[in-house]
């Protein structure tokens, strides 16, 4: 997910997405530990996407104060 797409989301949608992506990330890591994935770079990509979303949430929080 690109930064422009993240900025278009509402705050409540963004919070929901972060929770859903985090659950998916945790499941992906567990599955990879059990049996290796074809493309383990997906884990890195998802982790960075979650970080981008959390950064946007924090930025919005600071701007509202």
TrEMBL record:
Listed GO MF terms: structural constituent of ribosome
GO CC annotations, alphabetized: ribonucleoprotein complex; ribosome
Organism superkingdom: Bacteria
UniProt KW Ribonucleoprotein keyword: yes
GO biological process: translation
Keyword entries, A-Z: Ribonucleoprotein, Ribosomal protein
UniProt xrefs under InterPro entries: Ribosomal_uL29 (IPR001854), Ribosomal_uL29_CS (IPR018254), Ribosomal_uL29_sf (IPR036049)
Database matches in Gene3D superfamilies: 1.10.287.310
SUPFAM superfamilies given in the database record: Ribosomal protein L29 (L29p)
Similarity section: Belongs to the universal ribosomal protein uL29 family.
Name of the molecule in the record: Large ribosomal subunit protein uL29
Record gene name: rpmC
